[in-house]
Specification:
3-stranded antiparallel beta sheet, globular, single chain, 3 strands, Arc Repressor Mutant, subunit A
Length: about 150
């Protein structure tokens, strides 16, 4: 018999379950706008940081480079993202939202916020704020532990 904790007390399993519950709430809205969750993540990051290098976008979007490459190809083909060469280093690319990408962001944003409001109404604004704070603290504690190993 294993000395492992019950699967319901497994932090990775609980986080995955919470992620799936949240994304099940958002996916239909994203589909309505013709986006995947990863595409929306890229658009959201670029909406907040108007020009980013690919490596910065990888870090901020929490996507793996090969996945991001495919997503960017699609978003460029759709005219939502533009790529340009870095002035100081032609090997580096800079990414920006196009006017169409900004329009898409403005179209999806209100629907996204409505879903957040629904989650707040169901879960509670204060509890959601506490959850965000606790998750930030958990991330910080884990990152700090990894740095000291």
């Amino acid at each position: 018999m294993s000395d492992l904790r019950d699967i319901q007390l497994s932090l990775p399993m609980q986080l995955l379950q919470a992620r799936e519950a949240a994304m099940a709430h958002f996916r239909p809205m994203l589909r309505k706008h013709g986006l995947t969750e990863q595409q929306w993540r890229v658009i959201r990051v670029l909406a907040n940081e108007p020009t980013l290098e690919v490596s910065e976008l990888v870090a901020r979007s929490l996507l793996l480079a090969p996945s991001l490459s495919r997503i960017l190809s699609h978003l460029e083909a759709e005219g939502l993202v533009a790529r340009s060469a870095h002035a100081g280093d032609q090997r580096r690319s800079l990414l920006t939202l196009t006017a169409a990408g900004q329009k898409k962001f403005r179209a999806v944003g209100p629907d996204s916020e409505a879903l957040y409001e629904d989650i707040e109404a169901r879960f509670g604004r204060k509890k959601l704020a506490t959850l965000y704070q606790l998750l930030a603290e958990l991330n910080e504690a884990i990152e700090l532990a990894e740095e000291t190993e």
